[in-house]
Amino acid sequence: MDEQGGQPTTPDKGFEQYEALRPLMFSIAYRMLGSVGEAEDIVQEAFLRLHRALTLGSIIESPKAFLTTATTRLAIDSLRSARARHEAYVGVWLPEPVAVSLDPDPADLAEKNDSLSLAFLVLLQTLSPVERAVFLLREVFDYDYDEIATTVQKSEDNCRQIFARAKKRIDAGKPRFDANPQEHYELARRFFDAAVDGDMSSLVKFLAAEAGFYGDGGGKAHAYPEPIFGQQRVALIIRSLMFVAEKFNVTFHFALVNGQPGAVSFDADGRIINALALEIGGGVIQTVRSIVNPDKLTHLGLPVSDLARIKPREQ
Fold it and tell me: Is residue 52 assigned to a domain?
């Protein structure tokens, strides 16, 4: 699996040749952590470790294996230390969106990567750090068990057992009935049309009976502090969001958020307010996830609005 051909490498060949591995390392770290900034920091540290090793004269048989091991182990350590941070997080914690496609073509949805979706990243939170690493390296990135065993410092048999347990848990959390991507696209379109029209009865029909709404404000933007469940309650939330949007001249644009149908809202000056993703299964919307924490939107390359930000109290 070594994209560099597995040949011994020395610093004389130029460190820049390893940059081609950076996107893969980021993909691993981001799926492990659900954070763009932390993933970038970990990948940078992994590359620094490779650079130091080469500078000291080490012969690296496989730069890809070296970087995979460094990235994965750093991500595992970060997850273990992040547990306390997540427990102290204000309100609901959601992964950061890494990709937003405005006004996408239905073909974009058909080609989406399910392992990038917010729904999948949330499911990964149910796994321990090592389980997450083994599952991702095997299921998503197609590493062999001997490579995974070296990376996580477990035996191959142990890694097979870890993978089996993790896959069973992930499969159990996925929607049991799934429409095709084109149907997802059309359903989401109709849902947002009904939301803009304020059509409460239609909104309810688009939602599963136990639909959930999760809003991540991180204590920095207005959001519901706890998840909200039930099609009537979720429909009311969506309708109220549209009423507020109209009052403050906020516009919603249909979008793909990490490959899922969703929407992005902008204030009157064209600055992003939130990214919203839908999880669809069985022909209805199972979950709505809204990320309004401004810190989780800055890396999307769009100016971020202060409209939803919680203003500090005057002393």
Answer: yes
